[in-house]
Design goal:
Elements (H helix, E strand, L loop, with lengths): L38 E5 L15 H6 L1 H7 L3 E4 L27 H13 L3 E6 L9 H8 L12 E2 L22 E3 L5 E3 L14 H16 L4 E4 L16 H4 L15 H12 L7 E4 L5 H7 L12 H4 L4 H18 L4 E3 L8 H4 L14 H5 L9 H16 L4 E5 L20 H5 L43 H5 L5 H15 L6 E2 L7 E6 L3 E6 L5 E2 L4 E5 L7 E2 L3 E6 L2
Parallel strand pairs: 1-2, 1-10, 2-3, 3-7, 7-8, 9-10
Antiparallel strand pairs: 4-6, 5-6, 11-12, 12-13, 13-17, 14-16, 15-17
Helix pairs in contact: 5-7, 8-10
Length: 569
């Protein structure tokens, strides 16, 4: 948005010049279709690598670790927000959409990083946060300094209050992070914030907002960004005509008509963005973070829209063979409907790491293994099966990497990291913890800086401490420790990604009758199969050459909670 900083006008125009058309050896698609079956590694920049020793990760730190990313074998990096921010929500409160947070570096550091990534054959997907800015953004400061009804306020969503003297909020809506979704300003009006009060929602009916985000898309695309991950993609279009409906009344709106979420007209915005993406060679890509019903996801993933959309179905699913098969089948069908490829993900910056989730029992009501009760208990109840959780996570990931479509990995999962529970209350940073005391612990446990070495003040994250405390057990699961262990989770990920690239073929899958339960088996083009044993007993593998397994296989027997890849005769 406006105020891109001193380097804003220095971005080279790379439209239609082929910049970012990174070639790599192997069978994965090149050019415009590179994303369809890519492995994308999410970096939460404040917790990846710290080059200047201030305890906060930075862009120079990422650049220094590009050889590691190349050795892992990822196709792209998804970079969580790196913009100037007060960190009211981990960087998702953006002060300036066309600049770099000074604590993370400069635009020159960004340019060096993206050149080094491209030289290593790795593309860059930048996080974009269009639903809301921060309350420190120059537009919002101008809105607060202007009168009600002014053009400055029209960039956001301001309303008069209800009741005597307007003392009541415009509606009873609650924010995602807890508490009212409206915040009163000194002159008596309220502004809408569906997340934290420091994240005022933008008014996407305002042409000025739309035009400025188009400028932002071009700014980063001209610097070589290959694609965008669109935060809260289902929230931009809103219909806020008076009288505003109550929370109870909002439950009655049908698909595409909810006042706040997943409105049909949001796709007019993305059609305009698609025209911008097509100005580049290869076209820039995008993936929607859209928490919508599966049958609504296809419109976000349509080639005339963003092009791809996250599926969080596996992320939210319990460790269950029937559930996995149903989700995989349905999502492949939705992908065919949209003309896109599907996405698979088990962990990210917003959820308990899947090695921990799978080490916890399924709730008594059969609900998803989210780990909320475990977090609230301080990690004592229910009891975590750490070894079992990691074993199941390795098996599930190996199954996921055999599927057609894009695989999204979250930093540290390749080390088998568990959720960090050992964070004192005074060190926590997530606004959900402070706004929902006793109800939510927040997401800090998956955002702790990852360990690179066995020891040191921050396990190699930087030369000093880390902005979130790291547990003592990090040394044993550091990159340094796992580099020397052929049976480590890091070794498994490296072998799987290298083999996946060699085996990759058309986006097709054929389910096989495993003859045993609970076992999933499917075949991919090229004559190779994936077999996952959800346990509890051993199963006999079919005839064929064992290519890779998540656990030791002896005499053709696959143990419980393990996956194997086979080349069949």
């Amino acid at each position: 948005m406006a105020g891109a900083g001193a380097g804003a006008d220095a971005a080279p125009d790379r439209r239609a010049e082929g910049d970012g058309d990174v070639e790599r050896d192997g069978a994965e698609p090149k050019g415009a279709d590179w994303w369809r079956q890519a492995v994308v590694y999410q970096i939460y920049p404040r917790s990846f690598a710290d080059a200047d020793g201030d305890g906060i990760g930075d862009l120079a730190g990422i650049t220094s670790r590009i050889p590691y990313l190349a050795s892992l074998g990822v196709d792209a990096v998804w970079l969580s927000p790196f913009y100037p921010s007060a960190l009211a929500d981990g960087g998702y409160d953006v002060d300036d959409y066309r600049n770099v947070d000074p604590r993370l570096g400069t635009l020159d550091d960004f340019d060096r990083m993206i050149r080094a990534l491209h030289a290593a054959g790795i593309r860059l997907v930048a996080d974009l946060v269009p639903n809301h800015s921060s309350d420190r953004h120059e537009w919002f400061r101008a809105a607060l300094a202007s009168a009600p009804g002014s053009p400055e306020r029209a960039r956001y969503i301001f309303r008069d209050g209800r009741g005597p003297d307007g003392a009541l909020p415009p509606s009873d809506w609650q924010s995602i992070f807890g508490g009212p979704a409206w915040h009163r300003v000194p002159d008596g009006q309220y502004y809408l914030h569906l997340f934290a009060p420091q994240q005022p929602d933008l008014n996407w009916d305002n042409p000025e907002v739309r035009a400025d985000f188009v400028r932002t898309l071009r700014f980063w695309s001209d610097r070589g960004v290959d694609g965008f991950r669109v935060d809260v993609a289902h929230g931009l279009a809103k219909r806020l005509t008076d009288p505003l409906p109550s929370t109870e009344e909002m439950a009655g709106f049908g698909p595409g008509a909810h006042p706040l979420w997943d409105r049909d007209e949001v796709h007019d915005i993305y059609a305009e963005w698609r025209r911008v993406f097509q100005e580049y060679d290869p076209p820039r890509t995008a993936v929607a973070e859209a928490w919508v019903e599966p049958d609504r996801r296809a419109r976000y993933a349509h080639p005339e829209g963003l092009g791809q959309a996250f599926s969080f179905d596996l992320l939210e699913a319990n460790y269950d063979a029937d559930g996995f098969r149903r989700i995989i089948t349905d999502n492949l069908a939705f992908a065919r409907e949209s003309g896109s490829s599907t996405t698979w993900v088990f962990s990210n910056h917003d959820v308990v790491r899947h090695a921990t989730r799978y080490g916890l029992p399924v709730p008594a009501d059969g609900g998803p293994q989210k780990g909320r009760e475990w977090l609230l208990s301080g990690g004592t109840e229910p009891v975590l099966d750490r070894e079992g959780g990691l074993r199941r996570a390795r098996a599930a990931t190996l199954l996921m990497l055999a599927l057609p479509g894009s695989a999204y990995l979250y930093q540290g999962e390749e080390l088998g990291l568990h959720e960090v529970i050992e964070i004192p209350d005074e060190d926590r940073q997530d606004p959900t913890f402070f706004r929902n005391a006793g109800v939510e612990i927040g997401r800090d446990g998956c955002r702790v800086p990852i360990p690179w070495t066995r020891g040191g003040s921050s396990f190699g994250f930087g030369t000093d401490g880390a902005h979130l405390p790291q547990p003592t057990w990090f040394g044993a699961v550091s990159v340094e420790a796992e580099e020397r262990d052929d049976a480590s989770t890091l070794a498994l990920y490296r072998r799987a990604l290298a083999l996946r690239r060699r085996l990759q073929g058309p986006e097709q899958l054929h389910w096989l009758d495993a003859g045993q339960r609970p076992v999933l088996a499917f075949e991919r083009p090229g004559g190779w199969r994936a077999v996952m044993n959800f346990g509890p007993g051993d199963v006999t593998l079919p005839e064929g050459e064992l290519l890779l397994a998540s656990a030791p296989v002896s005499d053709g027997v696959l143990p419980a909670d393990a996956t194997a890849w086979l080349r069949v005769p």
